[in-house]
Each structure stands twice: as structure tokens, then as C-alpha cells.
Write a structure and sequence with these properties.
Layout lengths: L6 H53 L13 H5 L5 E4 L8 E3 L5 E7 L6 E2 L8 E4 L4 E5 L15 E6 L14 E6 L6 E3 L10 H4 L13 H7 L9
Antiparallel strand pairs: 1-5, 2-3, 3-4, 5-6, 6-7, 7-8, 8-9
């Protein structure tokens, strides 16, 4: 007599497989996305650095905030990229002042995703690259003179998968770098010496700060499991 599984046994087995799949697939998908984000971030850092080095070589001096007039750095920097669309100062990622007087960027959320970003750090030059990445420039002196030097800094933010794709959150797929005034080097925001290096405030799943996530770039590039533990 040939033995076979009963219909009930087959259904129970399929049910168990379904439960296991439901428990493991989200984690697997998140891990895959995390690996993609990490690779894209590393690529963007390399591309941004190479473009800056080329700019420095061509102009014969190191790019720093006080070597350019306000809102002009993007005009020089963008020549070193393959640009799909030039959004001028802020035609792609726009912001608006709400009823409380806070300047809100509707496109992006903070690292903890509990509120929309409040920042004017994206409106001194925007362009979409041929590979879909979006570069957002800030070089206005008064916006980021946190140290009281009167000079300010140049910030370069990059949306590694484009502003039309989620999660659109700082520290998830939006990352910020700073051109250092003392050396002209491009450093990931959150590194020692950058203007936003307080990780408890600017890269924390519990912070409610409107710029939470801006300092996550350093952690994303240096911590092995960063993208596996996003909030």
C-alpha cells in the first residue's frame, strides 16, 4: 500500500511555510534595500569627491566657502557631472513657510520619520544626475554659520535614489556632506569637526529635531549594520 500525505497535512504544511515566509521576508527585503542604499551612498561619496578634486585642479585653488559669492558654487561644481535636469536654485525640491513661520520641506522627513524636515539647506543649486541621484547645494553664509566665524560652510546633500522614490528621509536615502573650510576636503556630516556632529540630536531614532538625520552620513559610512537598523 502506497503512503501519501492527506489533504489536511498538506494544508498544515503550507500554512506553516506561509507563516515562516511572512516572518522572514520583511527582514530579507529590508536587508536587501539596506545593501543597495549603502552601495549607492558609497558611490555618491566617491563621485562627489572626484568632482570636487577635478574642480580644485581646474580652478587652481581649493574650494571653500569664502572663495565663492553666495549661491554660486553650484554653477562651478555641476560642470563635473552628467546632468539630466538642472533645477536651478530650487525648482525640484521646494519648501514653504508654515503658519508658525517654520520653513518646511514637504519632500523629506527626518531620520525618525516623525516629522517633515525643516531646513533651508537645499536651495542654492539643485540638479538631477543621469543615474537618478539628486544633488542639493547650500552655500549661503548666514544659513550655516553655526560656529560664529562669519564664513559659513558649503553643504552638499544627495538623494541617492531620487526624490520621487521613498523613503525620502534624512539618513535613509538622503545624506549630507560638508566641504571643510580648513582643508577643502569633503567630509560626511557627523564626522568630527563638521557643523552637525551631535549624533544624539542630529542622528537619533528618538530625536524630534527638525534636522534630525543630517548627521547620519558619517554613521552610515562607518557602521557595518547601520542600514539594517534604520527606524
Amino acid at each position: 500500500m502506497r503512503k501519501a500525505f492527506t489533504l489536511a497535512e498538506v494544508l498544515i504544511t503550507l500554512g506553516i511555510i506561509g507563516v515562516v515566509a511572512a516572518m522572514t521576508l520583511p527582514a530579507l527585503i529590508n536587508k536587501t534595500h539596506g545593501a543597495q542604499y549603502k552601495t549607492a551612498l558609497q558611490k555618491s561619496y566617491s563621485v562627489l569627491t572626484q568632482a570636487l578634486q577635478s574642480l580644485n585642479a581646474d580652478q587652481g585653488f581649493v574650494a571653500k566657502r569664502d572663495t565663492y559669492a553666495d549661491r554660486t558654487f553650484a554653477n562651478y561644481y555641476k560642470k563635473y557631472f552628467k546632468i539630466l535636469k538642472d533645477c536651478s536654485l530650487g525648482d525640484c525640491i521646494a519648501g514653504a513657510t508654515d503658519e508658525s513661520g517654520t520653513f518646511i520641506i514637504n519632500t523629506y522627513k527626518t531620520f525618525s520619520k516623525n516629522r517633515k524636515v525643516s531646513s533651508k539647506f537645499f536651495d542654492d543649486g539643485q540638479f538631477i544626475l543621469a543615474d537618478g541621484m539628486v544633488l542639493l547645494i547650500e552655500d549661503n553664509t548666514s544659513s550655516i554659520d553655526l560656529g560664529g566665524s562669519g564664513v559659513g560652510s558649503i553643504l552638499i546633500s544627495v538623494d541617492i535614489n531620487g526624490y520621487k522614490k521613498n523613503p525620502n528621509a534624512w539618513g535613509h536615502d538622503l545624506f549630507t556632506f560638508q566641504i571643510m573650510n580648513d582643508s577643502g576636503k569633503l567630509l560626511p556630516m557627523g564626522a568630527e569637526g563638521t557643523v552637525f556632529d551631535d549624533l544624539d540630536t542630529y542622528c537619533s531614532p528618538t530625536s524630534s529635531n527638525a534636522q534630525n538625520g543630517i548627521a547620519c552620513t558619517f554613521r552610515a559610512l562607518t557602521e557595518k549594520d547601520y542600514f539594517n537598523n534604520l527606524p
